[in-house]
Fold each of these.
Amino acid sequence: KMDFSGMLLFALFLILAAEFVNGWTDAPNAIATVVATKTLSPRVAVMLATILNIAGAFYGKAVAATIGKNIVRPEAVDLLTVSAAMVAIVVWSSAAWHFEIPTSESHALIAGLSGAALAAAGPQTLLWAGWSKTLTGLFFSTVLGCFGGWILAKLIQLIFANLAPAGARRGFGVAQIFSSMLMAFSHGSNDGQKFMGAFALALLLGGVTESFAVPAWAVIICALVMGLGTSIGGMRIIKTMGFKMVKLETYQGFSAEAGAATTILAASSFGIPLSTTHTINTAIVGVGLARNKNAVGWQTVNRVVMAWILTFPACGLIAFLCSKLFYFLAG
């Protein structure tokens, strides 16, 4: 058996591995549109996303608390449970990244924690408080995300109908830099906090802290690891979202980012863990629909939606089986 400190280090390593994969598959959402419209180069966009994700991660701790305290009962799980959940995230998200499909690390994390907890201690470990916020997050990310992108794109089409195309590209190119910064900040405020919540839960279970708390050093480490993942593997997801879903003009990129970021920040303020992937994806579909329904690459959208549907059962099942295996090996 591992000694306790070794088990804690093992769990923290897996949490950071999941955060790194989050940088591959989820964090690129924040910069996909600004790269697709060629407003910023991938290198500059990744640097910007990393800095703003770190800043956003300090935007309160409400989402981290929801993940760490309100999805499963902290007193009913242990480090093996958390480790099993992280393995499920890494396996599922790596497979999705291979096929260039953006996945929701939010749903993977919630499903993973729940599946591992079910294997460890049964249904009584699940907490409705966190799950009700997760369901609210589904409404925010799908309905409000799509509507936010659609209404902003429609308003711009009406107000700037007579603006010359070259002028529109220049003007909204500048605006899009700021909207991408807001999107990256909002991503850190919600998605960045989720794995920090898991990190803080592991510190509590490992006896490092006496109560649930997210240290500043943990925030910085998690955010940097996520940024590293984005810089190494983010372009695969950027290609899917920025080029295959909708061929984006700069005003559409601005509309999608601004609509999605506003939705995400609202959710973060209420401690609602929502899928930033869903939010920006539906916002991109919304701006496509604002032009016409044929502007949307429905084949790509269908693949993305199928991955969304499968994330909960797949990650829950993988985590359940890993949890059973870890407990068997630990005796």
Note: Residues 100 and 158 are 35 Å apart (CA to CA).
Amino acid sequence: MVTLKDVAKRAGVSVATVSYCISGKKSIKLETQLKIREAISELNYIPNYSARSLKNNVSDEIGVILPNLDDSTNSEILKGIIAQAELAHFSVNIACSYNNPRNEQEIITKFISKNYAGIILMPCQSQNSDFFKRTLDQYQISHVFIMRLPKNISANFLGFDNYNTVFHLTKLLIQKGYSDIALVIGPSDFFSEGECVNGYSEAHDRYGLDYRPENILYTDMSKEGAFKETMLYLSTYLPQAILTSSQTIMDGVLEACEIHGIIPGKNICLITLSEERWNVSCYRPDVIQTSATAYTLGEDSFRILMEDTISPQLYDRKFRLYKDNILDMELSLPAPPITLVPIAAHPKCALRIASVDLPTIRAIQAVSCKFSLDSGVLLIFDFFTLQELFSLIEKDTRSERPLYDLYLTDVSWMSYFSFKNVFLDI
């Protein structure tokens, strides 16, 4: 294990000077500080924080806040954090916000009250900079943001270089002859997701290819959210390729493709940003996956947190983006698939449905494509306000040729329409 004496020897100074420099108790010349900082970095020195925590009444525990552990990238990041924390004899307390700002605020407040040495977090409220300034900055607790950086905040941040990764993948697809590429991501105000959009649009601009704004789908980053958005999208349009910003989003896309009868690798090319893995069995043969160094990002986030904990005055704020390994790899893309003709182009017949715009009806619309594929009967949904639908039903009942075949109404209207003799007596 590297000691304070090893750092002093490498920097060419006394042990006391290193100690003063780390603790900030005495003023050290900038030139000497730089030598010590370089020595600490080269030797990967991690001080005995347990002793320091007892002396300064600071816990030898850190808090880690992630949106969830379902995403494999989040899990790999966490593994890297835990590995380094164990080496430094630190305990890791893990909490999930599930992308709920209120949950996240409560967790952060709780962690601060426990006087943890620091917090590593992937925030879910990028616009709420005031909250982070009122808590993390005001209470001067060391912290590192990963993947998502709140607006207008100067803080330690580690993420992936999604701009160059998505630019590279989009470029390769365009050069291969793809002219219709979709991008499925999380909220654009997250740094990682916004960089995906920037890389995607820049590649199209650079290589002179226009894209439909509708080809960028925004989700809540859950499998269910991705499934819903992709189901609605594929019910009217089929691109040649889909890029996603995470494996979780890709899982939702795959479910939607299966219901639509779209075969990955044959009818569509699927590519997702993912993390490096040692076991080939984790890879799906019908999906191209990238190889980001999530474990390394986790390790470094703990090291940077410790540097900030040792002496905030000594270490500058870190802003670090990690390159995806796929940028240095040979990538063999399949030829652009022959576009399928949507069911809407050749239905045997169609049913027109008038409905109030409700989430439950939207869900029915999303999965109706399976019915259309099996039966050849196209379901056409039109949505109205309550008052509009009320007037439409009354009008259609007096018409010899109603505009709609089915009406989806609120049950509370049942007695009124019965009184008006609207229903067919069966």
Note: The longest helix spans residues 294-310.
